[in-house]
Write a structure and sequence with these properties.
There is one protein chain. It is built from 19 helices and six strands. By secondary structure, it is mainly alpha-helical. Among the domains are: 241 residues, Up-down Bundle (Fumarase C, Chain A, domain 2); 61 residues, Fumarase/aspartase (C-terminal domain) (Ribonucleotide Reductase Protein R1, domain 1, Orthogonal Bundle), CATH 1.10.40. The chain has a two-stranded antiparallel ribbon. The protein has a two-stranded parallel sheet with strand order 3-4. Strands 5-6 form a two-stranded antiparallel ribbon. Strand 3, helix 8 and strand 4 form a beta-alpha-beta unit.
Length: 433
């Protein structure tokens, strides 16, 4: 069953109709390959291509008896093709069709995910450049550190999304691989050239060596790429949740007219999409674990991977596609509050300029360890008394004997600390999607 959060275009890849259509595409390509090698008469293949079809309900009906999906599918196709159906599936094992068909589905899914990932990257890039000069406090350990700009945060996310895109594209290429090598991969009843021709027709890679199946490290890599992208989306969403906290309120999710936040508290504006994305990322990471456990199978193959893949591959690609779309919405419509960012910057009494004071004292001839102690003493005084760090420094003779009042005041300028960020935004602007 296709999940309710599915997008129509991704869901269409994973329907029973689409899955069996991929199988049929593989079977017809194999027939064409045999024809090119002179094994099947060209007129027989022409007839097969004309008549080959299936009905999902009929396949399911047959499977109730056969308890084997591919045999049920082939039986249904044979009912429509007739005598020439004897050429279909010649020399193959079920996994030749299943794994090669799955490669077609995963390639299509990877392409859709790639396009949506690019869209998210473009939105992040645009908003990063929009907020290149929106000054805010940078935090380490959740505590005020030094000034940054909100554009730097968005640009950081843009580059991470680009890396996610590159991983996804590599992993999609790795998983877009089929095999037509028979029951244990030995080509006992199928010419290796059939595999080469088939994969050329389907525009897939061919496994250089296989057992009965394409090896599942490929699928695990694909799932890892999905999980990493989902984790990047969670990283963005988690940060938005922090920014939306009442005590912070530097940014928040768009809240539509008529939207309700709580059945009990009419004032609530909750980051529900961000929270949803954080929860959904956990599902994909959990599915990734199942994909890794599918790598180790008995000898030339068992089917313990199959039941898991029928859940984790459709669910994860569908869910990630949904997450990407929601992440695009979240960033594109994100409300940003520069005035609150400016106000929060001042909440730590000017302590965020402590490193500049430290370095100024060092430049004035104070040993670094001594300078650190002097600055920390004034900083702790300001923090504990909730008073101005600047005034505390001006009242410290060990500071004023080295630095004038004007020099000290000049150290409390965020512009100085952000003077080199232009190089960052040149890199952001250069991103190509």
């Amino acid at each position: 069953m296709i999940p309710r959060y599915s997008t129509p275009e991704m869901a269409a890849i994973w329907t029973d109709q689409a899955r069996m259509a991929a199988w049929l595409e593989v079977e017809l390509a194999v027939c064409e390959a045999w024809t090119r090698l002179g094994k099947i008469p060209a007129e027989a293949v022409a007839e097969i291509k004309e008549k080959a079809s299936f009905d999902v309900d009929r396949v399911n009906q047959i499977e109730e008896t056969t308890q084997h999906d591919v045999i049920a599918f082939l039986s249904c196709v044979a009912e429509n093709v007739g005598e020439t159906s004897k050429h279909i599936h010649y020399g193959l094992t079920s996994s030749d069709v299943l794994d090669t068909g799955l490669a077609l589905q995963l390639r299509a899914a990877g392409a859709l995910l790639g396009e949506e990932t690019k869209r998210l990257g473009r939105i992040l890039q645009r908003r990063a450049l929009e907020h290149r000069d929106t000054v805010m406090i940078g935090r380490t350990h959740g505590v005020h550190a030094e000034p940054i700009t909100f554009g730097m945060v968005l640009g950081l996310w843009a580059f991470e999304v680009q890396r996610g895109l590159e991983r996804l594209q590599r992993a999609t290429q790795q998983v877009a691989v089929g095999k037509i090598s028979g029951a244990v991969g030995s080509y006992a009843n199928v010419d290796p050239q059939v595999e080469q021709i088939t994969m050329s027709i389907l525009d897939l890679g061919a496994a250089p060596i296989s057992t009965q199946i394409v090896q599942r490290d490929r699928h695990a890599e694909f799932m890892a790429a999905l999980a990493l992208l989902a984790s990047t989306i969670e990283k963005i969403a988690l940060q938005v949740r922090h920014y939306q906290r009442t005590e912070v309120l530097e940014a928040e999710e768009y809240f539509a007219p008529g939207q309700k936040g709580s059945s009990a508290m009419p004032h609530k504006r909750n980051p529900i999409i961000s929270e949803r994305l954080c929860g959904q990322a956990r599902i994909i990471r959990g599915n990734m674990l199942a994909a890794f456990e599918n790598i180790a199978l008995w000898h030339e193959r068992d089917i313990s991977h199959s039941s898991a893949e029928r859940i984790i591959l459709p669910d994860s690609t569908i869910l990630l596609h949904y997450m990407l779309k929601k992440a695009c919405w979240l960033v594109d419509k994100l409300n940003v509050y520069p005035e609150n960012m400016a106000a929060n910057l001042e909440k730590s009494f000017g302590l965020v300029y402590s490193q500049r004071v430290l370095l100024a004292l060092v430049q004035a001839g104070v040993l670094r360890d001594d300078a650190y102690k002097i600055v920390q003493r004034s900083a702790m005084k300001a923090w504990e008394e909730k008073s101005s760090f600047l005034e505390s420094l001006k009242g410290d003779p060990e500071v004023t004997e080295r630095l004038s009042a004007a020099e000290i005041e000049g150290l409390f300028d965020p512009g100085h600390q952000l003077r080199h960020t232009g190089v960052v935004f040149d890199r952001v602007a250069a991103l190509e999607w």
